[in-house]
Amino acid sequence: MEVENFDPAWDGDLLVTSLKAQSIYRLRRDGSGRIVYSEPIALGHRLRDIAALPDGTMVLWTDDARLLFLNVDRAAFAANRRAPG
User: Fold this and answer.
1) Where are the domains of the chain?
2) CB count, 10 Å around CB of 63?
3) Along the 85 residues of the chain, how does pLDDT read in single tens digits?
4) What's the CA gap between 76 and 30, in Å, rounded?
5) SS3 6
């Protein structure tokens, strides 16, 4: 699935689910469409599918028939960007 409206840093990236690895993989393509970056994100659930809601929230369907909802905590994200570091 191509990411849109989730977080500006992720827009245009691809997300792929994994049953065995219990993760999603964030993939970034270069201008020619080749994958140049892969980030595994462990969620601890066997993931069957992924979809996006209009507000950018990601919905993940697990092997045990659960729905996981992922979204950006914008307030925490903004606070982390302002924090000295």
Assistant:
1) 14-82
2) 11
3) 999 888 888 889 999 999 999 999 999 999 999 999 999 999 999 999 999 999 889 999 999 999 999 988 777 767 766 666 5
4) 30
5) coil
Give dist(CA 30, CA 68) in Å, integer. 29
Handedness of CA 46, 48, 49, 53 (dihedral sign): negative
pTM for the whole structure = 0.79
Please identify which residue in the block is written with the tokens 């302002």.
Answer: 82
What contacts 24+ positions apart, CB below 8 Å, involve 70-74? 71/6, 72/6, 72/7
The two beta strands, 23-29 and 14-18, are antiparallel
Which backbone phi and psi does 47 adopt, to 5 degrees?
-100, 125
Amino acid at 60: L
